[in-house]
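Take a minute with the sequence and fold tokens given here and flag any structure token that looks odd. Thanks in advance.
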Amino acid sequence: MTKLSEIVLNGLALGSVYALIALGFVVIFKASGVMNFAHASLLLLGGYVIAQLHDELGFAGALLVGVVVTAAGAGLIEMLFIRGLGKVELHVLTILTIGIDILLTTELVRRIGSDKLSLGDPWGAKSVEVFGANVAQARIAAIVVAVVLITLFFMAFRYTAWGLSMRAASEDREAAALMGVRMKRVQLVAWCVAGALAAVAAVFLTASPTPGLDRTTGFVALKAFPAAVLGGMDSALGALIGAMMIGLTEALAAGYQSDLDALGGGASGIAPYVVMILILLWRPTGLLGSKELSRV
């Protein structure tokens, strides 16, 4: 029972981090209709900035700068490539984000090299006992921070003018524009919010028991992509549910790896994608995704 409690708590913590990343995918898709595959490199950018500055500015100062830089970087991508190219097919812009991701990741990997960088988080290797299981404090902090940020996000999405504009844009972009919604501003804010969430997620992806930031950290963001797809790319709540499912599945597969030898040694790595495929076979639009209606 102790082992199961530890696995579930780790799964919830991992799912909380995936939720922050998945929300970034969803908010950009809702605002601009683009699947942003450059999100992984933005996460790596945020982590790298924090790692470079925490000695000089302290963790809180480095985190603030990292969030601002990553949000600005995401906004710059939107202004230069998504908005700047004018009326281009959405699938072309999606492919373009893959190229941006390759360029940015290549430069960051060159700077990081073979090092493992510490982000200077205050939790270190400390652990706390919860339900009889020893869990890293960073895991508990990940859950708490994710709950706070996700709550603020949903409140903004529900009660602010930006949230109303986002909901209108996701329903019908052309109609929203005709009704006076400033689509350029909505898109820019959405990209900046996604970048900021990615920077925060980088902190918890590299905290204990993970050894730190390395060249492969950005690829972890791709594990959150199944969460966004699983929940439905146009549903923030679906992304949250999908992230928890993915996090728990990965943690359970890793915790009971010895019982899954027949599936090979990397069962936990492919588990998120297996879950995504099974759910999509049952419900192609995702758990809470909107169904497209065609008039014939």
Strands lie at 127-130, 133-136. The first strand starts at residue 127 and ends at 130.
